[in-house]
From TrEMBL:
Its cofactor is Mg(2+). Monomer. The record marks Y15 as: Substrate discrimination. This is DNA polymerase IV.
Length: 356
C-alpha cells in the first residue's frame, strides 16, 4: 500500500464537555454524565477532574457517587451531543470525503491527497481542531500517522486538547513501550491470554514469531504480528457520499444592514469555494439560508445548468438569492451559503484555491 496520511479525531470528555460549555459554573469541576444512581444507571463519561477520583465510563453510577460524592451529576442531553456531532462531522467533510465516523465524537480521516510539502498532515489536523473549537467551543484531540491503528493510538496519548504525531521515527519506541491492553482489538479476555503467555508489552509481542501468534490467537495472529510492527493496511471507509458543501455564521448581534450581511455572504462564498476545491467538486445548486432574530429560518435555492465552484460565481448567485429573500424590516442572526448537487470538477470551473 502506498504512503498514506491518516488523522484520528476524538472529542475530549465529550458529553461532559458539552454540559460544561453550556453551564459555565461547571468549569474545572468534577462532572459526571450518566443514568440515575437509583436502578442500574451507569456513567456515560466524566470530566478529567472527576477521572482523578477513579470515575470512568461504564462504571455503575452508585459507585461513582461513592468515589466522588461532591461531583456534579448530570443526566444526558443527547440532542445536544447529536448537534455537536453533526457539526464536527461536517467540518471533517469540508477537508476530505474519506471520513469514517466511529461514534458521535470520533472519526478517521484520510487526508493523503491534501498534504503538500508546505502543508504537513499535522498542520491540517491543527486547522481541524481550531475549526472545531471555533464552531462548537469544544476541544478535540487528534492523532496523525500513516495508518489507522497508529493515528488512533496517537490521539489518545496526550488527551485532552492535544495533537500527537506518530511517524516512522518514533513509532517503534512507542509500540515497544505500550501496554498490551492498549493494542486495538485486545480486550480483557485477550489481554489475559497474552499475560498468561508472558506478553505484557509491545516489545513482548514483537518478540513472538508470527507462527507462535497464529498458534495462540488463530486468524488474528497475523494482525497482531503486524500491529507490533506498526503495520495496518485497513482503509478509511467513508460511509456516505457528500451531497453539499455549506458554511454558515451566526452574528454576534442581530444585523439588519445589507452591507454587513453581504460582506458576510462574500466571506461564506469564499469559504465554500475553498472547501469545494479541497474535495475537487463543483455543484449545480446554490442555497442561501437566513435565520431571523425570532429564530425563523428561510432559504432560497437556485439550480444551474452548469456546475460552479469558484467564489465569484457562488457569490453572484448568493447575492441575488439574498436580495429575494431578505425582508428589509427584519434583523437576522444567521446567514448560510451552500452549494449542492455536487459532481467532480473539471479544469474549466476550478477556482483560485486550486492554484495556491
Ligand atoms: P469516548 O470518546 O470514549 O470518551 P470521552 O469523549 O467522554 O472522553 P475522552 O475521549 O476524552 O477520553 O466516548 C465518547 C462519548 O460516548 C462519551 O462522552 C459518552 C459516550 N460513552 C458512553 O455513553 N458510554 C461509554 O461506555 C463510553 C466509553 C462512551
Ligand atoms: Mg472522546
Amino acid at each position: 500500500m502506498s504512503e498514506r496520511r491518516i488523522i484520528h479525531i476524538d472529542m475530549d470528555y465529550f458529553y461532559a464537555q458539552v454540559e460544561m460549555r453550556d453551564q459555565p459554573k461547571l468549569k474545572g469541576k468534577p462532572v459526571i454524565v450518566g443514568g440515575k444512581a437509583s436502578g442500574r444507571g451507569v456513567v456515560s463519561t466524566a470530566s478529567y477532574e472527576a477521572r482523578k477520583y477513579g470515575v470512568h465510563s461504564a462504571m455503575p453510577m452508585a459507585q461513582a457517587h461513592k468515589l466522588c460524592p461532591d461531583g456534579y451529576y448530570i443526566t444526558p442531553h443527547f440532542d445536544k451531543y447529536k448537534e455537536a456531532s453533526e457539526k464536527i462531522m461536517n467540518i471533517f467533510r469540508g477537508y476530505t470525503e474519506i471520513v469514517e465516523p466511529l461514534s458521535l465524537d470520533e472519526a478517521y480521516l484520510d487526508i493523503t491527497h491534501l498534504v503538500r510539502p508546505d502543508l504537513p498532515a499535522s498542520r491540517i489536523a491543527q486547522y481541524i481542531r481550531e475549526e472545531i473549537f471555533q464552531t462548537t467551543q469544544l476541544t478535540a484531540s487528534a492523532g496523525v500517522s500513516y495508518n489507522k491503528f497508529l493515528a488512533k493510538l496517537a490521539s489518545g496519548m496526550n488527551k485532552p486538547n492535544n495533537l500527537t504525531v506518530i511517524n516512522y521515527h518514533n513509532a517503534h519506541d512507542i509500540l515497544m513501550n505500550l501496554d498490551i491492553g492498549e493494542f486495538r482489538g485486545v480486550g480483557s479476555a485477550t489481554k489475559k491470554k497474552m499475560n498468561d503467555n508472558g506478553i505484557y508489552t509491545g516489545q513482548d509481542l514483537y518478540n513472538k514469531s508470527e507462527r507462535e501468534l497464529i498458534h495462540l490467537f488463530g486468524k488474528r495472529g497475523h494482525g497482531l504480528y503486524n500491529k507490533a510492527r506498526g503495520i495496518d493496511d485497513s482503509p478509511v471507509k467513508s460511509t456516505r457520499v457528500r451531497k453539499s458543501v455549506g458554511t454558515e455564521r451566526t452574528f454576534a448581534t442581530d444585523v439588519n444592514s445589507d452591507e454587513e450581511i453581504l460582506h458576510k455572504i462574500h466571506e461564506l462564498s469564499d469559504k465554500t469555494a475553498e472547501r469545494l476545491a479541497r474535495i475537487q467538486k463543483s455543484g449545480k445548486t446554490v442555497t442561501v439560508k437566513i435565520k431571523t432574530f425570532k429564530f425563523e429560518t428561510f432559504s432560497k435555492q437556485k439550480s444551474l445548468r452548469d456546475p460552479i465552484r469558484n467564489e465569484t460565481d457562488i457569490y453572484n448567485i448568493a447575492y441575488s438569492l439574498y436580495t429575494d429573500l431578505k425582508d428589509p424590516e427584519v434583523p437576522i442572526r444567521l446567514v448560510g451559503v451552500t452549494v449542492g448537487n455536487l459532481e467532480r470538477s473539471t479544469y474549466e470551473n476550478m477556482s483560485i484555491y486550486d492554484f495556491i
